[in-house]
Amino acid sequence: MTLPLILLIAILVIYPAFYSLHLATLNKSMQRFIGLGNFEFLFKRDTFWLVVKQSCIFAITAVIFKALIGFIVAHFVHNIPAKGQRKWRGMLLVPWVIPPAMSTLAWLWLFDPSYSAFNYTLSFFGIGPIPWTGDADWARFSVILVNVWYGAPFFMIMYLASLKSVPEQLYEAAAIDGANWWQRIWYVTLPMMRNIIAITTLFSLIVTFANFDIVRILTTGGPLDHTHIFATWAFRIGIEGSDIPLGASVSLFMVPILAIAAIFILRDINKRGNEA
Amino acid sequence: MTSTVVIDKAAPTRAVKYGSMSRDRTWALRWSYFFLTLFAIFSLVPPLYMLITSLKSSAEISAATNPWWVFHPTLANYAGLLTSNQFLRFFFNSACVSIFVVTITMLISVPAAFALARMRFWGSATLATGVFLTYLIPDTLLFLPLFKMFAAFGDLTGIQLINRWYVLLIVYPTLTVPFCTWIMIGYFASIPKELDEAAIIDGASWFQTLTRIFIPVALPGLIAATIFAFTVSWAQFLYPLVFTTSTDQLVLPVGIITTLIKGDVFNWGQIMTGALLGAAPPLIIYAFLMDYYIAGLTAGATKG
Questions:
Q1: Tell me: the pLDDT tens digits for B94-143?
Q2: Where are the alpha helices (DSSP H) in chain A?
Q3: Could you say which of B13, B28, B44 is where a domain stops?
Q4: ipTM of model
Q5: Range of B40's domain?
Q6: Which residues of A touch B254 (CB under 8 A)?
Q7: Which residue does chain B place closest to A92, by CA atoms?
Q8: Architecture of the domain delimited by A45-275
């Protein structure tokens, strides 16, 4: 009964993954073996290092902010009376439900150079028109902002679920011992949620690192390739520039971070499997 | 024992302390509501702005009026899109692809999860972990080799897969099947063994155990997995962008982006309307089945 599953994974996941290793060693017309030539070429290009830097900035900053916002919002939702929680949770999860390609279009329109609704609002506070996607640093900020907007609800839901599983007695004990709110979070909540925080963060790191939709639609990598991340640059080179081997070598740079995160996630899952 | 009671009763600060605690609580609540409102505004501004823009005419969009308000609401954008054959085609393609993918996903992952949860065979534990690992391999890593593979397959057999909408039926399951199998394993494993042992004793075959016992009992999990498969295939953007190009083969997200944006001319009213209509099916499902949606979301980490 698992045969279709095995076939699917073997033919459409495992095989392409190794095939891309092979592709990365071919020349542009895919007829000649050039060993590590593609990688040598990449290492000599400034754009490549720009992409590496931007991918790291993008993924790490976005994940940190998603985790922080998710943690804070989960606490606020947990704080209010139980009968109102459903309504708030429902509203706060909306960004996660809308297909990212669609919601990024809304952001693109909110960031529009001439009709930006944000700039209209900010102009009342005397803040000049901000080039949301036109200037390299602002564009970096914008893609991260949209990614945080999209991903924070996921963290919120995960943390909320794990907050609810922390036994109330622990907080009572802490309160009796005279712990203030900060100590309650640091000594009770965080240790109890450690597992969920770790797995959610690692998981999100993978997804954010491999993100494509948001950057592609919001900036298409621009201005001047400053917001390209591995996935969008691989698409630009491999599909638009029809140099599939070079694109494959770019996307292979996602593997190390994926592998590290996957190992940690796997360890965590095995550990819990043994506990159960 | 008695002395402590006396002290407690005599302590004058006690009542005051209760008062301050409840006052703290009230303030904490007010702050919670205040920040929740802020976050809710942050979450809902883009979808609301989609709605606002979709109700405006092009003239009003380019006028220098307050962008946050509709002065002359019009349904022209909706009428325009819903009568456009091209847009309906995208919608139809998207619906077709999603429904087929959900069916394929369920047909593959439910039996597989059943086998992995109940039948102990050689390598079943490794396979279960492997399924989860493949879920972690992102689409952005596989699109180039897959593109090359399908092109080579077309050259070899003459069956053209690139630029046909049904190629998506082949690639989408790689995104949906691993996760659905994974959460179904979790749900199936939580069913008490006595239940299927009783069925086996009564002479049920493996197939009957699956359809009469496992699927009805694990129905919430099945719904969560279905919703997940549907939302993933509806929202997928990279694969259709890579594998389909002609306008009659496109699915909704790619269709909106490639046809409504013509060069540098952005018809924002229609784009926002299209985006809103494209976001509608997942939002409607979410509105009615929020609990299943959240169950599917948290299953990956909490059930494992």
A1: 899 999 999 999 998 888 888 888 877 777 778 878 887 888 888 888 88
A2: 3-9, 15-23, 37-43, 46-79, 82-92, 94-97, 100-110, 117-123, 136-164, 168-176, 181-184, 190-209, 213-218, 230-235, 244-252, 255-275
A3: B44
A4: 0.82
A5: 2-44
A6: 101
A7: B40
A8: Orthogonal Bundle (1.10)
